[in-house]
Design goal:
The complex is a heterodimer of chains A (about 80) and B (about 300). With about 80 residues, chain A is mainly alpha-helical. In chain A, about 55% of the residues lie in helices and about 5% in strands. Chain A is globular. Classes of the chains: A mainly alpha (about 80), B alpha+beta (about 300). The interface between A and B is medium-sized, with 23 and 22 residues.
Chain lengths: ~80, ~300
């Protein structure tokens, strides 16, 4: 990838990068990375060194869900438990 | 609104945020030069990829970028006026009182300082997308590479990345510049003049020196070292608890036109004031008699 994709293109594609996810949701990069590491945000990676790809709709929904649970003052471990059910 | 912003406008939102709007400063001068340079880059990016540009046209672009080095203060003021009026029309920037005006010495003297404040949501989207592309493996795009180069020239780059992240950033910038000769040439280009570089080096060294916890404490005792990082607000309310004083500070800042949000990070409570994060540190200023209050200590990435 050498040029940034336009928002229209991002919104029409199934998979997006973490940068595009930050652009769409306005969530901090470090937060997205933390959610990924905590397995709260599923991703796909073809090979170990390749960029992680996130399913656009699924990831946005998941982030909104986490935000809602965080607003209810739940801790990350509690959120993890709820989302894994 | 994010989609309606041009490359230059996005860059301007990043570098004008928290800059004094009514007075000149070295950082503002550098920011305006970088904004002028970003207009040339925007024009070039709209035509074709930088990587596919012919050597002669790329050298022409580099000359244009370097020409911003000698822009007069009058031209820079005009650039600022034009761009800010466009951004204000789009409702993505506003002028608000500087946080420093909330300091006891400033507001009791009636000194009012004004700052630019970028729209927090859009600012976060621009910055976090840039941070993600810069720090993720093999994710850097031409737009982000150009933004990072402009921020480096503007000496703001390292404000957005922690010291640990800076190592990854340097690695990714070098790797990206190896992909094409044009990228390499751009990374080597500088548009600051010697005087500005020296004064900027002095100011950034001074700022960096007060970023560690020990020096932050020293700066609270001797605020002249880095005045902007030692803001003291008095809270002399008898018979109140620390949480009351915290609420009092938040109300005071809101009254003075700042967006204040209480943030809890684990066990630590922080304040998000406009687009920056601060710790509240109870302290006392001793004049003829001691004044109790809180110091706002900025938090870096």
């Amino acid at each position: 990838m050498s040029r940034q994709r336009s928002l229209e293109k991002i919104l029409s594609s199934d998979y997006i990068s973490i940068g595009e996810l930050a652009r769409l949701t306005g969530v901090r990069y470090s937060t997205l990375k933390y959610y990924t590491e905590e397995n709260l945000l599923p991703f796909e990676q073809e090979e170990e060194n390749l960029t992680r790809r996130y399913k656009r709709l699924e990831s946005i929904d998941r982030i909104q869900e986490i935000k809602k649970l965080k607003d209810e003052k739940l801790s990350i471990s509690q959120i993890k438990e709820i989302l894994s059910k | 609104m994010y989609t309606k912003l041009s490359f230059t406008e996005k860059y301007a939102l990043l570098c004008l945020d928290n800059l004094e709007s009514q007075h000149h400063s070295t950082l503002k001068k550098l920011s305006l030069k970088a904004i002028s340079a970003s207009a040339f880059l925007e024009e070039a990016l709209a035509k074709e990829d930088l990587s596919s540009m012919e050597t002669s046209s790329f050298h022409l672009l580099l000359n244009q970028l370097c020409s911003t080095k000698s822009l007069s203060q009058k031209k820079l003021d005009q650039t600022e006026k034009n761009l800010v009026s466009i951004l204000k029309e789009k409702h993505v920037i506003e002028e608000t009182p500087d946080l420093l005006s909330c300091d006891i010495n400033y507001y009791t003297s009636g000194i009012k300082l004004m700052n630019y404040r970028s729209d927090a949501a859009i600012y976060t989207r621009i910055l976090e997308c840039l941070r993600a592309e810069a720090l993720e493996e093999d994710s850097l795009t031409e737009e982000s590479f150009c933004l990072l180069w402009l921020l480096r020239e503007n000496s703001l780059l390292y404000d957005f990345f922690s010291s640990l992240e800076q190592e990854t950033l340097e690695k990714h910038l070098t790797e990206f510049s190896m992909k094409c000769e044009n990228y390499k040439l751009l990374l080597q280009t500088k548009f600051r003049n010697t005087g500005e570089s020296i004064s900027n080096f002095f100011l950034s060294t001074k700022k960096k020196a007060t970023e560690n916890q020990f020096m932050q404490g020293v700066n609270l005792i001797f605020p002249f070292i880095n005045r902007r990082n030692s803001i003291f607000i008095d809270t002399v309310i008898l018979g109140t608890s620390s949480s009351n004083r915290r609420l009092e500070i938040m109300a005071f800042l809101s009254e003075h036109g700042h967006f204040v949000e209480d943030i809890t990070l684990g066990e630590e409570k922080l304040l998000k004031i406009d687009n920056g994060y601060y710790r509240l540190f109870p302290t006392v200023r001793v004049c003829r008699f001691p004044i109790q209050g809180m110091a706002l200590v900025p938090i870096y990435h």
